Amino acid sequence: MRLNTLFLKKLFVLSLIFAFIAGVNASAFANSEHNETVLKDSAHVTEAHAEGEGHAAGHGEEPFEPTKVIMEHISDSHDWHLWGHTSIGLPVILYTEAGLVTFNSSEFHHDQEGTHVVEKDGQKFVRFENKIYYAAETANEKGQYLTLADEHPTNAKPLDFSITKNVASMFLSAIILCLVFFSVAAAYKKREGKAPRGLQSFIEPIIVFVRDEVARPNIGHKYVRYMPFLLTVFFFILINNLIGLIPIFPGGANLTGNIAVTFVLGTITFLVTNFSGNKYYWKHVLAPDVPWWLYPIMLVVEVIGLLSKPFALIIRLFANITAGHIIVLSLISLIFIFKTLYIAPVSVAFVLFMDVLELLVAFLQAFIFTMLTALFIGTAVEEHHH
Amino acid sequence: MDLVTPSIGLVFWTTVTFFFLFILLRVFAWKPIVSALNERERSIEDALNAADKAKEELTRLNQESDKLLKDARLERDKILKEAKTLGDNLIAEAKHNAQTEGAKMIAKAHDEINAQKNAALAEVKNQVASLSIDIAEKILRKKFENAGEQQTLVAELLKDVKLN
User: Is the dihedral of CA A258, A255, A53, A338 positive or negative?
Assistant: First the structure.
């Protein structure tokens, strides 16, 4: 409790400093010539950092666009950016009209404007804002091989099955999960009937927690069948949430904050739930206990109910993780928005706070997703004794 | 809008990865881990149950031994009591016997003494009789010698003789 109040006090002081510096900056931009030069110097320093942090925004005198940088960081990418202008090229796999085409993403030479054409198997591709299009025959006045309408390309797109940053990060998480749990399983075989040790004793309470607090109370005695699924979902979300929090390679991919991933997870939950549904469940959905003339409305309501459950799961996980990433990136962006290093301690303090919070959220979201999945399965397999 | 539009590639790879991850983990991790956990929990429960049973058994045995001890004590007391009564009875009987025997012997002795006394008295009577006859004979003889003398003699003799 004492620690808490101390922490709050510190936060308060930090926010005061923050407000003060913000005020100084505003006045500096407005009036003082002297201050301007000083700030320009510090801005120069931070600009260099900006290049590192937001490589797209870092081209010399280009103004810093926090929205663009943040969106770039939370969305998927064909390259895995390391620092500055260094990034790892990842395999691009395109399903085109003429079959599969593969090449390394480094062949785009970091181009995101559609100006660099990659020619493979007689087909030409350009990349515009993380999306790959068939290149136009001729370049427009900006040198882009695209036809733009309202800043959006109208070119046709091949189906993109590339191993993107998110996919690579997911493979990594799958490998980590396999290594961790195979070794834990081996430990259980080797030390049969004995007390857990090392990694085993770290993992065991979580597994027991999923079994005793998530699966058993929500599903009932049929929980054993669903344990592998629930455990896989829980640890898959957890490990990817955690990897997403690591700012440096090989972390930082916003995987569980990507709608495609949460969509797949939600869909799997939907399929598992409805394929487990017993006659009571389907009777409740298709022939609820209401007067017959209400059926047209009730059927629609019930079907919406079926779909809204996994939809809520999809949006909840996506929004929570993405929001966390956006807040952290926004706080870091403050340094570049105010173009001063003095804001850095404040940013770092807030980011630290957010990261600790995100650590909690990582566990919480994995838990909630698994919990609700178990709950939905529970309602689908529940036996009614009238 | 890009943010909330699932891209086909990621959907595909997530599905594939999740499917394989699920299969691999289910076969090589969850099955052995969950079964080992259940197994251990069962063995712990069994051990606890066995401990409870052993405890119960111990209490039962303790109670039994207590009961046995109590019974043995009671038995001992009973035996001691019986022995005491028996001893007392024996002593009492012996005393009684001795008393009756003694009384009998005394009575017998009395009878004997009486018989002896009677016999002795009879003897004395006989002796007195024979003595009397002797005296009478001597008197008679003397009388026949001297009448006066005889009379004095008889008187003297009678004076001397004392009957017991």
Answer: positive
- Separation of alpha carbons A256 and A240, rounded Å: 6
Distances (CA, A) of B96 to A24, B89, B100, B107: 133, 10, 6, 16
Suggest the residue from B8, B14, B31 to mutate for an interface test with chain A (most A CBs closer than 10 A).
B14
Contact residues on chain B for A259, CB-CB shorter than 8 A? 3-6
Is B10 close to A164, i.e. CB distance below 8 A? Answer: yes
DSSP 8-state secondary structure symbol assigned to residue A116: S
CB-based contact, B98 to chain A, within 8 Å:
no
Dump pLDDT digits (tens) for A177-199: 999 999 999 998 888 777 888 88
Q: What residues 14-33 of chain B have any CB closer than 8 A to a CB of chain A?
A: 14-15, 17-18, 20-22, 24-26, 28-33
Q: Alpha-carbon distance B67 to A183, whole Å? A: 57
Q: Is B41 on the interface with A (CB under 8 A)?
A: no
Query: Does pLDDT of A210 surpass 90?
Result: yes
Residue A179 backbone dihedrals phi, psi, to 5 degrees = -60, -50
* ipTM for the predicted complex: 0.79
Of A160, A163, A264, the CB nearest to B14: A264
Q: Which two tokens stand for residue A354?
A: 């957010």
Give the closest of A93, A182, A236 to B29, CB-based.
Answer: A182
Residue pLDDT, tens place only, A129-144: 888 888 888 888 888 8
Side chain identity, residue A326: I
What's the pTM value of the predicted model, to 2 decimals?
0.72
Neighbours of A323 (CB within 10 A): 14
